[in-house]
Design brief:
Shape: elongated
Oligomer: single chain
Largest sheet: 8 strands, mixed
CATH topology of the largest domain: Rossmann fold
Distance between the termini: 51 Å
Helix content: 10-25%
Radius of gyration: 45 Å
CATH class of the largest domain: Alpha Beta
Length: 680
């Protein structure tokens, strides 16, 4: 029960002040005139003014509230190293018992786990949430049981009570860590890219060790071993072996005594891209489609185009002296013998044998294909003639032979059943509403896949793999009609772009491929195939466990499955003859970037609240009461600040003097003054 004196004036404050001034003037006049009752008159005026001020006695009935101590228990991944989990739980139980045994004290336990998306230990977010649920006036202290490594210190709140850290580390702890400091997302094929690595020991590491073995593996292949110095940045040049995603795994072996091997490995995923694509376009004669090919290839800034057009074939004899011609002799020997391997793609556009390219050159082109090159033949009536390019050494690699028939008739190109599944023609825009072509060379398929058909269901677009190379045959020279918008046009640019990129081995256009797309710890596995059934995909986890997962067809030729990986690391995928690797999780999980226990991050909070840190290996400290602003930690103990919070049950207000008492007192003083002056 407590009481306070309050005032609730009966009249406005300005009137009360005016009456007080008037009373003061009246008393002053009485004193000046020598009236002996001036003192009693003054007392009467004070009683009346006090009554008008409305003095009240307010009394409160209060119930004391208990103090609250927040206990933050770190249960993140780094707390599962060594025996920290057992030590933390034992200390949390003992501390909760000691705090709970105190009078007027409650304990609120808050478990702090791993943050989402590798955010680390978000202890300050958990503390803010706990403070929002409790009255700050009752919080007497905060005790954190943790390794002290907190990743959201920017959210640290202002605390009304001491903050203490009971850290779980040992003085003998040490750890070896591999980190990748510089790794680009993209790299140019054939050119080395420099990665920056660092292997370092921290804590009470063994002395006298200056170097450590480093293992490097690309796409899950057998690793190579190198000896690298400790505690220094290592610049490592790497040349990517293929286009698309390259998964590079770095690792150092686990040493006995270190805290964990979870930070002894790192995964780097780099996409290999071509710098410049070199294309040789050979046009047998000027025609409408030649400009289409040239515009397509010149529109891509990453393509270096060399265009060879036969403007004056040998049979054209018009009597003009050669010295007077403004044509440039084409370096055929240099291109087709010496530098043919420098090209990524060779296109023969309506080319026929006229003695300009000897059979030896064309034989060299066939060998170029077998060794990994790419040749595209865009055929016109020339392909059906006696001088067809098919009737040369190139027939060994071409997928279709001409029947000598040229079909000059209207037809609409149609995607075949295989073409519906092949990435070159699958999903071409506006299918079913394409414009017509007017000429096609009839060919008999000999190898490869027919992706499009034309007049009389004859093969129109054929693809084939020969050795390590690729060959395509387009049995019409009227693709340019789509570009001109004839009969509504069609996806000429997209089709030819896909065709050219497939021939140059772009990974996203492979008809048989297996890859995975990662989002956090979840991967979407994609299998592309020309087959109608691909079976299950075999997943090998970082722990060596093999998981079989069925693949479901989502679109023609595309099969998918979703898998949630429990572990961070390298996963191997196998389906039939296709295999792939993918890394889940960060290169180095944030929880394992710093594994040694440290109070440095939380030191500002402890200093601001007069708290301190305590090593749990020394036992659980005692708990004492300390006044606000005093040091809250000493030898063998930590302190909390009692808050003295209370709950007001009810409030009562009563006048300080009843009205009759005010009237009686004022009357007595007035009468006393009158009697005093009457005696005089």
């Amino acid at each position: 029960m407590t009481g306070n004196l309050l005032f609730d004036p009966i009249v406005p404050l300005w009137l009360l002040v005016a009456l007080a001034a008037l009373s003061g003037i009246a008393v002053s006049i009485a004193l000046w005139r020598g009236l002996t009752g001036w003192a009693f008159r003054a007392l009467a005026g004070l009683v009346i003014l006090a009554a008008l001020a409305g003095p009240l006695l307010q009394t409160e009935n209060r119930a004391p509230l208990s103090d609250i101590v927040l206990m933050l228990v770190d249960q993140s991944a780094s707390q599962r190293l060594d025996d920290r989990t057992e030590r933390t739980e034992a200390a949390a139980t003992a501390m909760a018992a000691r705090l709970g045994a105190r009078n007027n004290t409650e304990v609120r336990r808050v478990d702090v786990g791993d943050g989402l998306n590798d955010a680390g230990t978000e202890m300050m977010a958990a503390l803010n949430e706990a403070l929002a649920q409790e009255p700050r006036g009752r919080v007497a202290g905060v005790v954190a049981l943790s390794d002290g490594v907190v990743h959201d210190m920017d959210l640290a709140p202002d605390l009304p009570a001491p903050f203490h850290l009971l850290h779980t580390g040992r003085d003998s702890d040490w750890d070896r860590r591999l980190s990748v400091k510089n790794a680009p997302a993209f790299a140019i094929l054939g050119e080395p890219v420099t990665l920056t690595l660092r292997v370092e020991d921290s804590g009470a590491a063994p002395t006298g060790v200056a170097r450590a073995p480093l293992y490097i593996s690309i796409d899950g292949e057998a690793p190579q071993e190198f000896m690298v110095p400790l505690g220094r940045d290592i610049e490592l040049p790497v040349t990517l072996p293929h286009g698309g995603r390259n998964v590079i795994q770095f690792s150092v072996p686990f040493e006995e005594g270190e805290l964990t091997d979870r930070n002894n490995a790192a995964l780097v995923q780099i996409n290999g891209v071509r710098d410049r694509l070199r294309v040789l376009l050979v046009s047998g004669e000027p025609h409408q489609g030649a400009r289409t090919w040239r515009n397509l290839l010149k529109s891509d800034a990453s393509v270096d185009l060399v265009h060879f057009t036969i403007l004056r074939p040998p049979e054209k004899q018009d009597g003009v002296p050669v010295a007077e011609l403004s044509l440039i002799a084409f370096p055929t020997r240099e291109l087709f013998m010496e530098k043919i391997d420098d090209f990524d793609l060779i296109i023969f556009d309506r080319y026929q044998r006229r003695g300009i390219l000897p059979s030896l050159y064309l034989e060299n082109v066939a060998d170029y294909v077998r060794k990994g090159g790419a040749v595209l033949v865009a055929a016109g009536p020339d392909y059906a003639s006696a001088d067809s390019i098919y009737r040369s050494p190139l027939s060994q690699v071409l997928p279709g032979s001409p029947t000598a028939r040229v079909m000059d008739q209207r037809f609409v190109p149609t995607v075949s059943d295989v073409g519906e599944r092949h990435p070159v023609t699958a999903g071409l825009p506006n299918a079913g509403n394409w414009g017509a072509w007017l000429r096609q060379v009839e060919v008999a398929p000999e190898a490869g896949d027919v992706l499009m058909t034309g007049a009389e269901d004859s093969p129109l677009l054929m693809l084939n793999r020969v050795g390590e190379g690729r060959v395509a045959l387009l049995a019409s020279d009227h693709a340019w009609l789509w570009a001109r918008g004839y009969d509504g046009g069609g996806p000429q640019l997209e089709m030819l772009r896909r065709l050219a990129h497939w021939m140059m081995g772009e990974p996203e256009l492979e008809e048989e491929a297996l890859w995975a797309e990662a989002t956090g710890q979840r991967m979407r596995i994609v299998r592309r195939s020309l087959q109608e059934d691909v079976g299950d995909v075999q997943i090998t986890t970082p722990a060596g466990e093999i998981v079989s997962l069925p693949l479901e067809e989502t679109t023609p030729g595309r099969f998918e499955a979703v898998y949630d990986g429990a572990d961070i690391g390298l996963y191997r995928l196998v389906n039939g003859d296709e295999s792939s690797v993918i890394g889940l999780g960060p290169a180095a999980p944030r929880e394992f970037e710093e594994t040694l226990s440290s109070a440095a991050m939380l030191a500002p909070m402890m200093e601001a609240t007069n708290g301190g840190d305590w090593a749990l290996v020394d036992g659980v400290p005692a708990v004492r009461d300390v006044r606000a602003g005093r040091p809250a930690m000493g030898r063998g103990w930590i302190g909390i600040t009692p808050r003295g919070a209370f709950e007001t049950l009810d409030v009562a207000r009563t006048p300080l003097l009843p009205a009759w008492a005010v009237l009686l007192l004022a009357s007595l003083f007035i009468v006393a003054g009158w009697l005093r002056e009457g005696r005089r």
